[in-house]
Design the sequence.
């Protein structure tokens, strides 16, 4: 299975490139891959792209995380990192690479349960 970590696709080679070119490159990178990140709908919206739900692992919308933390609202990545990984992030400056790595750590830690959850929802 191929995974794509949100926020790591956009590197300096795209600075100054036309939006359509960047959008096409990102679309190619995502095609056929499982995308892991937090609040991915925002990233997809900015890029005017969509991705199938069954190929998306979004830590913001994974309902078992809400149940574990007894939340009715969408959990922030900062809260998930603190409560589920025991680490502090987003103190001061916001780092998209750290965010992407934390989202991937959360996914990897819960991969088996998450994939079972996805399979049960896609039946």
Sequence:
């Amino acid at each position: 299975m191929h995974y794509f970590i949100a926020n790591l696709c956009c590197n300096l080679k795209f600075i100054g490139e036309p939006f359509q070119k960047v959008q096409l490159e990102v679309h190619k990178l995502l095609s056929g891959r499982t995308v892991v990140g937090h609040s991915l709908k925002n990233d997809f919206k900015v890029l005017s792209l969509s991705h199938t739900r069954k190929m998306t692992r979004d830590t913001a919308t994974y309902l078992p995380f809400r149940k574990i933390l007894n939340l009715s609202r969408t959990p922030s990545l900062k809260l998930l990192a603190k409560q589920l990984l025991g680490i502090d992030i987003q103190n001061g400056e916001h780092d998209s690479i750290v965010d992407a790595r934390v989202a991937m750590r959360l996914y990897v830690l819960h991969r088996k349960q998450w994939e079972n959850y996805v399979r049960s929802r896609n039946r």
Summary: DSSP finds six helices and three strands in the chain. The chain has one domain: 3-121.
